Amino acid sequence: QAKERGRNNFQVFSPVMDSKLKERVAIEASLRDALEKSRIEVHYQPLIDIETRRVVTLEALVRWKDPEEGYISPTRFIPIAEETGLIVPLGDFVLQRVISDMASWRKQGSVLVPVAVNVSAAQLQRASLRARIEELTRASDLSPSMLQIELTESAMFEQQDSRQDDSGTDEVSELRTLGVRVAIDDFGTGYSSLSYLKRWRVDCLKIDRSFIRDLVTDTNDHAIVAAILAMAQHLRIKVIAEGVETWSQLEALRRLGCRYAQGYLFAEPGSAARARDFLNGHRIGLPDVETDLLKVA
Ligand code: C2E
Ligand code: MG
Ligand code: MG
Ligand code: MG
């Protein structure tokens, strides 16, 4: 990557790079346009307590609805938004939408659960994130503790590098002081150093779905998940398994003592209206035959 080789180095553009660059520029322009034309939506996916089958958190997942292409996956546009700085207005839009959805769910009589928002490193490096969360939650009379931010391990490390200022404090600690919960997303796929778990208190670890996929058949994955659970238990950090799609994965997780899960087995991400159904005292409907699997041993 040209960027990695330093800004002052010249790069010879191959046709492949050229077409990638063109796609990047095109996506950047139409994403900017989409933000202005309100084609950005926020969907929600529940995180489930396996024991009680209750929804404990909703994860907000951004969606770009293009009139021609339909829904464009965030895996396609988030990296570009991060590179171009568009992630800042995009992230702010998501935050505003989440707060306003929570306010309207409450107004409609639903009991709220915390909502998890994915936050990129570039958003975290702007000290204004905390001020913005304070401002938006206060304006809607919501407690900041009803918000959780999901950070990847690399985002956690980048702020470690960038904000060692005189105050001796950093964004994550300040957000936690405000009451915002912090989750590590895609845990196990980033940096291998666990030192940040010592430096920052985090509330939960989300085990990346690449460890869950073959959990039942791959003894290495099984060992890794078991080790994460053991470590987190000692550190008193909650663990959520991502990407749970099958009953046998759920059963394996239950046996390992994993209490929380998220995945298509329970529910796919859905609109704010659908999310309200999850909130309304609704336990995730699991067929009777299978619920035995969920009984606490
Ligand atoms: P993530 O934060 O790890 O979110 C989980 C992703 O896994 C979501 O993909 C979700 O739809 C998908 N998923 C959930 N259950 C299952 C399952 O059982 N099987 C499989 N195969 N997938 C499952 P999505 O919505 O496409 O988002 C992809 C990524 O984009 C997110 O990964 C997150 O890193 C990023 N992202 C999404 N929304 C935002 C946002 O508002 N801001 C930022 N900065 N990043 C976002
Ligand atoms: Mg996430
Ligand atoms: Mg994840
Ligand atoms: Mg992910």
UniProtKB/TrEMBL annotation:
Coiled coil: none annotated. Its cofactor is Mg(2+). GO terms for molecular function: catalytic activity. Residues 24-283 form the EAL domain. Signal peptide: none annotated. This is Diguanylate cyclase (GGDEF)-like protein. It comes from Povalibacter uvarum. The lineage of its organism: Bacteria, Pseudomonadati, Pseudomonadota, Gammaproteobacteria, Steroidobacterales.
